[in-house]
C-alpha cells in the first residue's frame, strides 16, 4: 500500500467522454478502482487550480456522458460531452437531453429554475424558465452561507431538486419540465429513476408513481401509476430517506433498516441474480465503510475489476487508506465518493 490518500472526492467507473473522474492519465475509457478526483480539464492544466477546484466541490450531479460539479462559490461546472459553467447555481439535475439548474436570486431578480439543452457547450439562453416567487423555506434550509456569500462550512450540500422551494410542483429534466404535486403530501424528499419517482412524505411514508414494469414501484404488480401512491408494504414504518436507481428503488427507515425492490438483472438488489453465480459470503461492515454491488462492467463498483456482484462487497481502497466515506453519488455507469480522514 502506498502513502495514504488525502481526504476529498474520488471517482471510478465510466469516463468514455472525458468527464472528470480520477487522477489516472491516459486513454482508458473507465477506471476500475477509486482515484482522487482531478479537474485539470476545466482548470487549463494548472495543478494548483485543479486541487483548489476539487476542494471547492460541494456536490456532484452525474449523467451518462458528462458530469456537473457544484462549487462553494455557487458555480455549476460541466465536464465531458457537455462543457461550460454557470454562476449563481444552487442545485442541478443532469440528463442526456437537458440540464436543469436552480439559480439564485440576483440583484432583485427572482430565483428561477432553468432548463438548458445538453449541447457540447452551454450557450445562448435557456430553453425554459420558471420564476420562484416564494422561497422562504429554501433560504431557511440552505443556511446563510459563508462570508463570501457562498456555501456554508460543510463541503457537502443536500440535494434540493427535483423539489423546488414553492409548493405544488416539482421539476424533471424531461419535457414538460414542471409537474404538479399535491401539497398535502408534505414532501420531504423526491428522487427520480429512469421511468419512475419516489417521494418521502412528512410522516415518513413512501409514495411511488410512473412505470412499474420491472417492479420498481413496490405495489405488488407491474402496472404503471399516474399519481403518487403510497407503498402499502411500508405502512407503519417511518422512513428517513429514499433513493432511486434506473429501474429499482430504495429507502432507509429511521431505525436504519434498508428496503430495496425492483429490477435485479445485475444483482442491484443484493439478491441472487440469474446472471451471476451465487456465492456464499458474510458481510459485516463498520460505519464509514463503502459497500457496492450490481452491474460492474466499467469498474463502477470500485473493486479493480469489471465483475458484477449480487451481494455487497467492501471497497477496500478507502479502509486501506484510512478514509471514512461520508457521501456516495451514483451515476449511470460511474461513482463519485466523498471521504474524510478515518474516524474511530
Structural overview:
The chain has a domain of 96 residues. 6% of the residues lie in helices and 36% in strands. It contains 3 helices and 23 strands. The chain has a 4-stranded antiparallel β-sheet. A 4-stranded antiparallel β-sheet has the order 3-4-5-6. Strands 7-8-9-10 form a 4-stranded antiparallel β-sheet, with no helix packed on it. Strand 8 and strand 9 form a beta hairpin. The longest helix has 10 residues. The two termini are 21 Å apart. It comes from Phascolarctos cinereus. This is RCC1 domain-containing protein 1 isoform X2.
Strand content: 35-45%
- Secondary-structure class: mainly beta
Unreliable runs, pLDDT <50, ≥5 residues? Answer: 136-149, 278-283
Radius of gyration: 20 Å
SSE topology string: EEHEEEEEEEEHEEEEEEEEEEEHEE
Shape: globular
Distance between the termini: 21 Å
Largest sheet: 4 strands, antiparallel
**Strand order across the largest sheet:** 2-1-23-22
Oligomer: single chain
- Number of contiguous helices: 3
Got a strand count? 23
Q: What level of helicity do the residues show? A: under 10%
Give the overall average pLDDT.
85
Amino acid at each position: 500500500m502506498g502513502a495514504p490518500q488525502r481526504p476529498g472526492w474520488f471517482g471510478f467507473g465510466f469516463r468514455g467522454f472525458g468527464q472528470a473522474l480520477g487522477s489516472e492519465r491516459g486513454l482508458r475509457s473507465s477506471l476500475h478502482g477509486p482515484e482522487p478526483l482531478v479537474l485539470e480539464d476545466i482548470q487549463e492544466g494548472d495543478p494548483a487550480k485543479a486541487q483548489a477546484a476539487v476542494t471547492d466541490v460541494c456536490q456532484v450531479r452525474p449523467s451518462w456522458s458528462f458530469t456537473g460539479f457544484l462549487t462553494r462559490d455557487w458555480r455549476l461546472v460541466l465536464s465531458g460531452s457537455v462543457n461550460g459553467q454557470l454562476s449563481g447555481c444552487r442545485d442541478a439535475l443532469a440528463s442526456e437531453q437537458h440540464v436543469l439548474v436552480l439559480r439564485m436570486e440576483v440583484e432583485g431578480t427572482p430565483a428561477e429554475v432553468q432548463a438548458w439543452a445538453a449541447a457540447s457547450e452551454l450557450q445562448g439562453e435557456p430553453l425554459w424558465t420558471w420564476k420562484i416567487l416564494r422561497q422562504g423555506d429554501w433560504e431557511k434550509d440552505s443556511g446563510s452561507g459563508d462570508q463570501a456569500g457562498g456555501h456554508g462550512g460543510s463541503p457537502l450540500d443536500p440535494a434540493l431538486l427535483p423539489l423546488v422551494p414553492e409548493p405544488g410542483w416539482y421539476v424533471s429534466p424531461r419535457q414538460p419540465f414542471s409537474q404538479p404535486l399535491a401539497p398535502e403530501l408534505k414532501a420531504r424528499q423526491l428522487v427520480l429513476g429512469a421511468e419512475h419517482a419516489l417521494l418521502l412524505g412528512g410522516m415518513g411514508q413512501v409514495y411511488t408513481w410512473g412505470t412499474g414494469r420491472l417492479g420498481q414501484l413496490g405495489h405488488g404488480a407491474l402496472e404503471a401509476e399516474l399519481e403518487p401512491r403510497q407503498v402499502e408494504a411500508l405502512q407503519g414504518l417511518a422512513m428517513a430517506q429514499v433513493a432511486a436507481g434506473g429501474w429499482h428503488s430504495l429507502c432507509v427507515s429511521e431505525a436504519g433498516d434498508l428496503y430495496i425492490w425492483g429490477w435485479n438483472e445485475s444483482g442491484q438488489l443484493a439478491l441472487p441474480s440469474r446472471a451471476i453465480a451465487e456465492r456464499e459470503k458474510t458481510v459485516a461492515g463498520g460505519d464509514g465503510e463503502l459497500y457496492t454491488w450490481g452491474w460492474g462492467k466499467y469498474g463502477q463498483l470500485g473493486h479493480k475489476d469489471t465483475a458484477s456482484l449480487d451481494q455487497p462487497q467492501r471497497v477496500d481502497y478507502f479502509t486501506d487508506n484510512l478514509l471514512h466515506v461520508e457521501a456516495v453519488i451514483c451515476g449511470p455507469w460511474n461513482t463519485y465518493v466523498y471521504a474524510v480522514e478515518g474516524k474511530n
